[in-house]
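> tool_call: predict_assembly(chains=two)
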Amino acid sequence: MASNAVAPRILEPISWTRKLSNNLLTLFAVGSSILVIVPLFAIFAYLVMKGVGSINWAFLTQAPKPVGEPGGGMGNAIVGSGIILALASLIGIPLGIGAGIYLSEYGHNWLGNAVRFTADVLNGIPSIVVGISVYGLVVITQKHFSAVAGGVALGIMMIPTVSRATEEMLLLVPRTIREAAWGLGVSQWRATLSVTLKTASAGVITGVMLAFARAAGETAPLLFTAFGNQFWSFNVNQPTAALPIQIFAYAISPFDEWHKQAWAGALVLILLIVAAVTAVRVVTSRGMMKGAS
Amino acid sequence: MGVGIEVRNLKAWYGSSEALHSVNMSIAANQATALIGPSGCGKSTFVRCLNRMHETIPGTKVDGTVMIGQTDIYANGTPAVEVRRRVGMVFQKPNPFPTMSIYDNVAAGLKLNGFRNRHRLDEIVEKSLKQAALWEEVKDSLKKKSGASLSGGQQQRLCIARALAVEPEVLLMDEPASALDPISTGKIEELIDELKVNYTIVIVTHNMQQAARVAGFTGFFLLGTMVEFDKTEKIFTNPSDKRTEDYITGRFG
């Protein structure tokens, strides 16, 4: 080899121990990533095994039947979850994105630091604490459980995730892009919404979807707020069924039939979350330009 | 048509450090004026004061008078947003909006300011891209391709078209060709020559040949002061100040 002809070298040729440690580390990295995927697929496979047998049209469209009567389903809980999550998104997404914009564009001061700290603490608060707080604030005041109370609880849980994700993503947009907009005489709020936020939108949407998926699976905050309901209810001021509550109630029941339905409910919940996230991805990527970062 | 620029006692700060010390300058209408000088001499800061871009950096301050035509841009009650509509800017690194198509990039200044007449927009986009000598290369993929998918030189011409679309009177160019290859640089320089018929152009450059090629007037900056400002010919052949001569002959900087 020509390289052997070069006489003095500072670095020794790569030794076999270095090659070995290199290979070992690569192996470790690959192994770790596989181990990360395994539980996800294991859970999903187990859910399908246990739950798919009980999913049928009646399960998806009917409310629960009384104990002992066969059939019935979680249709009301699916719709209820949808209502509660829509309310939660209505609260959590605008507030979260708004706060994120403030933090990234203006929040380099004591107020920004306070908001950032609060959001991080809020993110770490156990969800049952959020539930009981909303119970005190909304349910006691309204004097009844409701979908609104459930939406408020989940919405509060979404805010910190959405705002910190928005902030991080906006900070990734280079200053030159903002300056390009300002240089055209575009007002600051317009530049922020139509240029900076739009440039960061892929990341912001990921943050929103993370928050949404997490909220969709929350049970504890709903126990004291939406409460659950065995019947259909489309009134946001009434106790409302939700998939996680229904799954919880059925799973701890002594009836085999209900256990099966709990498995099916869990599978449906996961599939609905995947469907929602995929749908949002497809719809929002349609507006994006090719070659855009 | 372009308008003249009168700068009187312009000072600018970053925090507590003064980056410009009382600069005075009269920039002629419908001319290209080049600003040269070593890195950190204040020439970029100076052009960023001409469209009130300097003040967007936290902790900065400006003092003095800048007249764009008849408008005192630092007077109370002159909105920065309006100043920037009249004084366009092209930056050192091409910065097209990455999520927008070529068409939307050019139309951005108008659309984001509430201009909605689609027929007029089409006309203006075409005219601006033609002025920026980019039309032929992109006319078939106006709405299909992202501005970010173009080559560096094309992106910079796209940014020029974007600045022209709002029909400014002055065009500031902060080292517009420093990130480009010689062919793209040549195109930008030809462009400057054509554009000065309709616009007043101020171009910051590190490339002295470029200043000599495109500009009728040249200003030499050093350590935050304007050392000399004269016809380009005079600056490059017979400068009055020893420091200018040292710089253009490569003895320092």
